[in-house]
Amino acid sequence: MLDKKDQIIFENLLHDCRIPTIKLAKLTHLSQPTIVYRIKKLEKEGYILKYDAIINWSLLPFPIYFFFATVPQNYVTSFEKAMQKNKSILSLFRIISEYNFFIAAFLTMEEYKVLTQCLKDHCVKFNC
């Protein structure tokens, strides 16, 4: 069962997942080894699944493109494989709407041309 100390650990990890364990120890009035043990236990038990970085997209020197694509059912598997091979693709999501895929990618102009050609080959329609 999770207690108040775990709640303090959670709140601080949510705000900054790189917070030093020594700072968490001070906040919770526990020892640093106890904090490390508790975090590892929370990870092992599935309370903490992963740690993420939040990107400031506006500062990046290259553009990110977002596509919505409609792929016929008989091309879905080959489309997914083609997208997985492309290292510029950040995210590929199946969605339920008029379009059945959402794609996010960092692309140079040449990569943009290659991807749009791939989309033309596999999709009924797509939007950028």
Characterization of this structure:
With 128 residues, the chain is α+β, with helices and mostly antiparallel strands. The protein is built from five helices and four strands, in the order αααβαββαβ. A four-stranded antiparallel sheet has the order 2-3-1-4, covered by helices on one side. Helix 2 (21-28) crosses helix 3 (32-44). The termini are far apart.
Q: Helicity level, as a percent range?
A: 40-55%
Tally of strands: 4
Spell out the helices and strands N to C.
Answer: HHHEHEEHE
Low-confidence stretches: none
Please indicate the percent range of residues in DSSP E strands (runs of 2 or more): 15-25%
For the largest beta-sheet, the strand count, sense and barrel status come to: 4 strands, antiparallel
Net shape: elongated
Please tell me the overall pLDDT.
Answer: 87
Overall radius of gyration: 21 Å
Distance between the termini: 47 Å
Order of strands in the sheet with most strands: 2-3-1-4
Briefly note the structural class of the backbone: alpha+beta
**Secondary structure tally, helices:** 5
